[in-house]
Predict the structure.
Amino acid sequence: MQGILGIACVFGVAVALSRNRSHIGWRTIMAGLGIQLGIILLFFKIDWLHHAVLSLQVLVDAVDASARAGAALIFGDLVKDQPFDDANASPIFAFRVLPVILVFAVLVAVLWHWRVLIWVVRGIAFALEKSLGVSGAVGLACGSSLFLGTLEAPLTVRNYLARLSQGELFTVMTCALSTIAGSVLVLYVTLLEASVQAPLGHIVVASLVNVVGAIVLSRMFMPPEHLTSAESASDPGYRNTMDAIASGTHEGVRLVVAVGAMLIVVTALVSLLNMALAGSTAFLPAPLTLEGILGWLFAPLAWLLGVPWEEAHTAGSLFGIKLVLNEFVAYLSLSQLEAEALSERTRIMMVYGLCGFANLASLGIVVSGYGVLVPERRDEVLRLAPLAVGVATLVNCLTAALVGQVLLLV
């Protein structure tokens, strides 16, 4: 009953805070919940489909091997799992993991130029439009969020952003914050390989379920006033394949630098805060840490989603880190946990619950980015962005709760 209570609470919050309860489309809401459950059940209950999705891990392994080959040309033995043939050495993150992001960013750019991803996005947009009644523009933006980042996804419908209703704009923002970009997908898969079996399948399913959940919950909070049509996704404008490779490399370098710098800064700030907390609470039997505080604050939420209470503090800490810092640090923390810290079911639930860009850092990115894309709607964005982060967090929680319930049946 824990998980069922958590699911009920998520929808209860959505109804309680809705801007227009009388216009909530309950048939669409139930259809969306059914689609989410259907995707999760198909993945976990149908063996051949489960193994087919998990087999996608081969693609990540291929990208990882190719990235290692390219990085070895520049960095030599530094890219090995055990640098300098030292059995006690750990992989060097900068040389072992970051090159994978660079290669994957280029692959996304090339596949977009070859229109492979564009047709996939259009197919997803069509399915969302027919099943959930979203407009063509919203469907395209939501479908794009499976592959593109928080600001890149709305670029596919940039020409329509100014005409979207407030409810539609809110849905686009929420969906982009509820998923992760394809360019960092392989990074999280690499981090989680030692913690969860074939994590790629779980993250792909999580993003797909989150797209549906984002549409459902955002339309409960803010039903759209009208529907805006759109015929096709915007083309990024690559002249040829070489231009796509060069542009993808440029974007990948920016992403690699941003991820590396962010990891250094966030780790340093957390360490500094923990030292300050340890000094000011030295009189306690166990000095406080940021992770410990966040764990106690979010432990009730983790329990409500179906996590056993003895694991709720650890799981709650991960939820808190994801919201206050970002999902990357949360996944990194999950990968570093001892094997006995969380059960297999809870680990899988956390992979789904952390799969999204909903955090305070993304709030600043959304406000500044949309201010450039649609400057005439900057005031609306300032009002909607904090709420979008909150709703996207609820989307991630809903997905984790649904997966937890299904895992009890497997």
User: Anything to note?
Assistant: Residues 241-280 form the longest helix (40 residues). The chain has a mean pLDDT of 84. The two ends are 17 Å apart (CA to CA).
